[in-house]
Amino acid sequence: MKLDAAFLAFGVIRSALAGAVIPRGEPTPAKVEPIEPKYFRDLGSKRVKITYGPYDIPGSEDAATDGMVSFHDTNAMMPCHDCLITGFVSDLQFLDGKSANANKNMWLHHTGLMNLNRTDLACEHWPERIGVNGNERSPFDFTLKGTRKAGYYLRKGDEIFQTVDVMNLSHQQQQVILVIEWEFIEGTPAGFDIVVPVWLDIKGNCLNETTGIKPTDQVFTAKGGAGWTSKYSGDLILMVPHIHDGNTKQEVYLDGQLVCTNVPRYAETSDFITHVDEDGHGHDHGASEHIYHVSSITQCANAAKVVPGSRFTISSWYDLVQHVAMPDHHGKPEPIMAIEFLYLARPQEEAIKDILAMKPGDLQAFQDQVRSNTGQ
Ligand SMILES: *[C@@H]1O[C@H](CO)[C@@H](O)[C@H](O)[C@H]1NC(C)=O
Ligand SMILES: *[C@@H]1O[C@H](CO)[C@@H](O)[C@H](O)[C@H]1NC(C)=O
Ligand SMILES: *[C@@H]1O[C@H](CO)[C@@H](O)[C@H](O)[C@H]1NC(C)=O
After folding, report:
1. Contact (CB, 8 A) for 374 and 2
2. Which of 70, 172, 277 to mutate to test the pocket of ligand 2 (most atoms within 8 A of CB)?
3. Domain layout of the chain by residue ranges
4. Rounded to whole angstroms, how far apart are CA atoms 169 and 59?
5. CB 47 within 8 A of CB 183
6. Whole-model pTM?
7. Which residue, among 178, 1, 164, has the nearest Cα to 71 in the 3D structure?
8. What's the pLDDT band for 327 if we cut at 50, 70, 90?
């Protein structure tokens, strides 16, 4: 099983609460706890912690899954509706609230969110891809620590598809939860711009272009082709990358000019270090006893002014000699990824007018494409 084919393809729909009868149109129940907001408290901002799951992850020797499971929810609990989401950050945890990470043999392979009631700016027949993240657990803060009035508009009735891919590196079965802290402001407060997401990828806007990278390549630069061209004007306020172990740098260009450099950091805390047992545990990590994983990657803020016709392209550098690639459970290196989420802040009135005119996207077409992507 190729892991990028597994991403969003091998699904357990709304399985988090097996057996529960969820009325049509209602989000999957999840625990919602209010916590202290961080930014724009004077404007009545709110922050909640939502607990998704629990998810049962079979062992790494489970033949059906290899310890890798992708959970899908077609109507995930959101913190609010008719509101602006100003930021969110995700963490994979054990049921006791302790972080579930590489040192404990649990791996947040991917989390992703899509708005089923909108179409995507990069691949126009798909639902809108809001954000993707991996074990690095990057924060998404559209307010740039309270310095920018911007948020993602969630309409009443919008249904959000959530994927949670978890990989179990150990021989023991464990249960985990995904905890997302969301910050938001009710309604559409004056002076706030609307953030629209764009998924820029070396595999192209619809993830169907070849990168030319072979599975045996060790040190290489992956370059996207034509890139994405904006129809809109706005401020490119935030850029959040997602890459895999082995990455050393990623760059984004606007009309050929460098506008963002992302640099990953490895093993900033011991949580991000895999300890390989002396006797091994069913898969081959090579000679190294400790594997250092990506623990964060830098983002770019206030990167550029965007006008209709602005074209973005992406390049990403990998060095699998310097950094061990994450193995799948057949001991093969995991396929590389190089994604950059561009968050464009658009004037509120025109952005909402465009959003209201959007039709639902084709989730099946997206899943079919991802399923057909094997390797690089
Ligand atoms: C959003 O999309 C879902 C799934 O396609 C649909 O059931 C729902 O009616 C849509 N909501 C609105 C407000 O159109
Ligand atoms: C992880 O894999 C091991 C080994 O197969 C298995 O025993 C264990 O139950 C799995 N852990 C989780 C969380 O499923
Ligand atoms: C990728 O998919 C899009 C949308 O279906 C299509 O327009 C485009 O021609 C495809 N590109 C390749 C290289 O197959």
Report:
1. yes
2. 172
3. 3-359
4. 8
5. yes
6. 0.90
7. 164
8. low
